[in-house]
């Protein structure tokens, strides 16, 4: 005999029971969707604009096209930090006449990850460094508690590829913020598009791989040609050319200062102007400006400006050679006679 509590439905106890569609389910509704943050965020972190042109003679002779590329890159905090531990604390707040309120607080312990900037980011002009030093001064030197990145030698020890000045302490590293990248090389533009699918860690490994292959080429070590694309070998002349030519000299990578540091820099530049405006305000409130205006009006209404103008015109007229030379000569002779003993 079948128990009365049993059911002949096809769904199991783990699945939710089927629900019939209601008429208000067909109405349009609003949904609040919060996109994920961190490495799973769909937010755009880089935009590039490339413009290239080629001429008829350049195409015939196989010259590279004229290209300009401009990219704006935003480095987020999760790209340059590593989570060490997560501590969750629970605090209970007791208020008279109310139910206890529980508050959860997450404390995340992080450590910076030092990814060296590419060769074009290891050098930029001194005036720009002075402008952005307030916000990026700490990016050039890692803290003593955190040693340099294991690939720092390949990016900062001056191995012949233009990464730094030879001193590991001068290596600049990626920091959270905005960066501006500009290049006039079409090879650099192509590589930039490829690097848009790589993280900072993968970009560092790629640069290390290029430096290692170029070092092998400089030492005359045999290269594994099977790793190169056959089309490149057929179309390009690879004689006496390194596997990865250094085109960083035609590119520039600059950190964009944050609004806070820019405001601080402008405040330092405009400090004298603020001082002058404060003095002008004080003089206006004390009546000194009004007294100065009254004196200027009194001088303008007198005959002194006209006399000064007449004397100036007379001197200009005499210097141009249209003065009374006879009178000046006679007066000069009289003065000379009066000086004789």
Structure characterization notes:
α2 (126-136) crosses α7 (259-269). A hairpin with a 7-residue loop joins β3 and β4 (101-112). The protein has a four-stranded antiparallel β-sheet. A two-stranded antiparallel sheet has the order 3-4. It contains eleven helices and six strands. The chain is α+β, with helices and mostly antiparallel strands. Helices cover 38% and strands 16% of the residues.
Give the helix/strand layout.
Blueprint (H helix, E strand, L loop, with lengths): L45 E8 L2 H5 L5 E10 L5 E13 L7 E12 L13 H11 L15 H5 L20 E7 L2 H10 L4 H19 L11 H6 L15 E6 L2 H11 L1 H16 L1 H14 L2 H16 L5 H15 L2
Antiparallel strand pairs: 1-2, 2-5, 3-4, 5-6
Helix pairs in contact: 2-7
Biggest sheet strand order reads: 1-2-5-6
Summing up helix and strand content along with how strands pair, one would put the structural category as alpha+beta
Largest sheet: 4 strands, antiparallel
In round numbers, the mean pLDDT is 75
What is the beta-strand fraction?
Answer: 15-25%
In short:
This protein is an alpha+beta fold and about 350 residues long. It has helices at about 55-60, 125-135, 150-155, 185-195, 200-220, 230-235, 260-270, 270-285, 290-300, 305-320, 325-340, and strands at about 45-55, 65-75, 80-95, 100-110, 175-185, 250-255.
What labels would you give this structure?
single chain; 4-stranded antiparallel beta sheet; two-stranded antiparallel ribbon
């Amino acid at each position: 005999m079948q128990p009365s509590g049993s059911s002949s439905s096809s769904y199991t106890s783990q699945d939710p029971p089927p629900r019939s569609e209601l008429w208000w389910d067909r109405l349009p509704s609003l949904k609040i969707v919060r996109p994920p943050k961190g490495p799973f965020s769909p937010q755009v972190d880089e935009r590039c604009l490339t413009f290239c042109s080629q001429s008829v003679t350049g195409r015939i002779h196989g010259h590279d096209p004229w290209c300009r590329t401009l990219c704006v890159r935003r480095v987020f905090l999760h790209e340059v930090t590593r989570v060490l531990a997560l501590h969750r604390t629970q605090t209970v707040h007791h208020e008279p006449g109310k139910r206890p309120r529980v508050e959860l607080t997450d404390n995340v312990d992080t450590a910076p990850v030092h990814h060296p900037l590419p060769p074009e980011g290891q050098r930029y002009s001194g005036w720009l460094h002075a402008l952005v030093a307030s916000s990026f001064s700490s990016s050039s030197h890692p803290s003593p508690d955190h040693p340099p990145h294991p690939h720092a030698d390949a990016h900062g020890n001056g191995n012949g590829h233009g990464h730094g000045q030879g001193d590991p302490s001068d290596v600049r590293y990626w920091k959270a913020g905005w960066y501006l990248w500009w290049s006039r090389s079409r090879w650099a533009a192509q590589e930039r598009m490829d690097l848009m699918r790589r993280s900072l860690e993968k970009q560092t490994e790629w640069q290390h791989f290029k430096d290692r292959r170029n070092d092998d080429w400089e030492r005359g070590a045999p290269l594994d040609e099977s790793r190169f694309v056959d089309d490149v070998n057929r179309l390009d002349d690879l004689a006496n050319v390194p596997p990865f030519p250094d085109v960083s000299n035609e590119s520039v990578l600059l950190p964009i200062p944050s609004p806070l540091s820019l405001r601080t820099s402008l405040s330092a530049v405009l400090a004298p102007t603020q001082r002058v405006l404060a003095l002008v305000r004080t003089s206006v409130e004390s009546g000194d400006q009004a007294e100065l205006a009254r004196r200027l009006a009194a001088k303008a209404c007198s005959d002194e400006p006209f006399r000064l103008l007449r004397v100036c015109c007379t001197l200009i007229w005499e210097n141009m050679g249209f003065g009374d030379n006879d009178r000046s000569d006679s007066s000069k002779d009289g003065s000379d006679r009066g000086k004789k003993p």
